[in-house]
Design goal:
- The chain has 14 helices and 10 strands.
- It is α/β, with parallel strands linked by helices.
- It has 2 domains: 37 residues; 247 residues, no CATH class.
- Strands 1, 2, 3, 4, 5, 6, 7, 8, 9 and 10 form a 10-stranded mixed beta sheet that branches.
- It starts with a helix and ends with a helix.
Length: 370
């Protein structure tokens, strides 16, 4: 076989291989494009009405990537947790995601949803300041145990608020000797779950350490509970408002603020160094706020199960201060960040059944109108 023929065959072979490769890669690219289009078509846009406290977590790029991979793209709108069930456009959403079991129960009743899916929970706490701790300790209100501050006489603190006692009247108070009334700043009880949980805790303590469960119980605690809110003046409808005031205006504006534990922990976790001036106080007892997704259709129910069960999502949730189904995710992250929190909060009371907390809220609302 001569050289020219060999070269010709070799050239033909190269050309054949090149054409074949081109066809292969073109086909592969086309298949990938078609797969991407199919995946895009399979992704479902799902609209949710949520409490503001979960907005940053649900918009985390890692969470949105996981959800998209599983076929969900979220479109979120915010509202106070207690407001969600009264929205006139509720039917335009696929799910509601309030904070608090009572708000979720009401939403499930209003919407006719078949299920309600617990996903995360957080503890009701009071954000304060390290400078105030000696004064609070000297007055028998706060005690430190295992690197955690506990409000050990919550009844006395509530009585101080209800009676209008002023900071300058506290003994050994050099850090905040002002004429301002002692208050626990909260959101609007009529609109927000965090305020409703404050009322739930206060009603338990003022009802002789018993959960309210009758009209007589409501009547018994109403005068004192109402004063906790009436004395505050203007109140925000969302938990983000008091928290932003606490962070930006510091102790002068907000010496004591009812917050979700998750708000405090998320803020500290995102900092390069912890804000050592801030202090987190755990009422003893306290109440738990559950974040419960109420799905209005099957696709939202699948989303709820994913949020509740996916280990990666639960790990990310810990970075936002949320306690999930597996406490290991939360505790491991807090240790890594050097944030000292109780691994488990033991002294917890249940909020009243929906009908009774709703009755208390309506009774307090009537006092606002007087």
């Amino acid at each position: 076989m001569d050289v020219k023929r060999i070269l010709g065959l070799a050239l033909s072979l190269v050309l054949f291989v090149g054409v074949g490769a081109g066809i292969y890669f073109s086909s592969r690219d086309k298949q990938e494009q078609e797969a991407a289009v199919r995946a895009e078509r399979e992704v479902q846009v799902i609209k949710g009405l949520i409490g503001s406290e979960k907005e940053a977590f649900l918009n985390d790029p890692r969470v949105t990537a996981i959800l998209k991979k599983r076929g969900f793209v979220l479109q979120l709108s915010k509202a106070g947790s207690r407001e969600i069930s009264s929205r006139p456009d509720l039917k335009s959403f696929d799910f509601g995601y309030p904070a608090g079991a009572p708000a979720a129960v009401k939403l499930q009743q209003i919407s006719g949803a078949k299920s309600a899916i617990p996903t995360f929970h957080t503890v009701m706490t009071i954000a304060s300041w390290e400078a105030l701790i000696p004064t609070l300790e000297a007055n028998g209100l706060v005690s430190r145990r295992d690197n955690t501050y506990y409000i050990v006489d919550m009844r006395r603190l509530l009585e101080m608020v209800e009676q209008g006692k002023r900071w300058k009247q506290l003994k050994e108070n050099t850090a905040y000797p002002v004429g301002k009334s002692i208050l626990i700043t909260s959101t609007d009880l009529r609109k927000s779950n965090s305020a409703a949980m404050y009322a739930a805790l206060a009603s338990y303590i003022l009802n002789g350490d018993n959960v309210i469960q009758s009209e007589a119980d409501i009547a018994r605690v109403l005068p004192q509970v109402a004063q906790l809110f009436l004395r505050q003046g203007f109140q925000e409808s969302s938990s983000a408002g008091p928290w932003e005031d606490y962070v930006s205006m510091r102790m002068g504006k907000s010496p004591l603020v009812m917050v979700y534990e998750a708000q405090f922990l998320e803020y500290q976790a995102k900092r390069v160094t912890l804000d050592g001036e801030m202090a987190l106080l755990y009422p003893s007892p306290t109440v738990i706020t559950k974040h419960i997704l109420v799905p209005f259709n099957d696709k939202a129910a699948r989303l709820g199960q994913l949020l509740a069960e996916d280990a990666e999502i639960q790990t990310i949730a810990a970075e936002y201060g949320l306690r999930g189904q597996n406490p290991e995710h939360f505790n491991t992250f807090m240790k890594q960040k050097g944030i000292k929190v109780p691994a488990a909060v033991l002294e917890v009371v249940d909020p009243p059944a929906y009908e009774w907390i709703e009755g208390l809220v309506l009774a307090v609302e009537a006092r606002f109108k007087q």
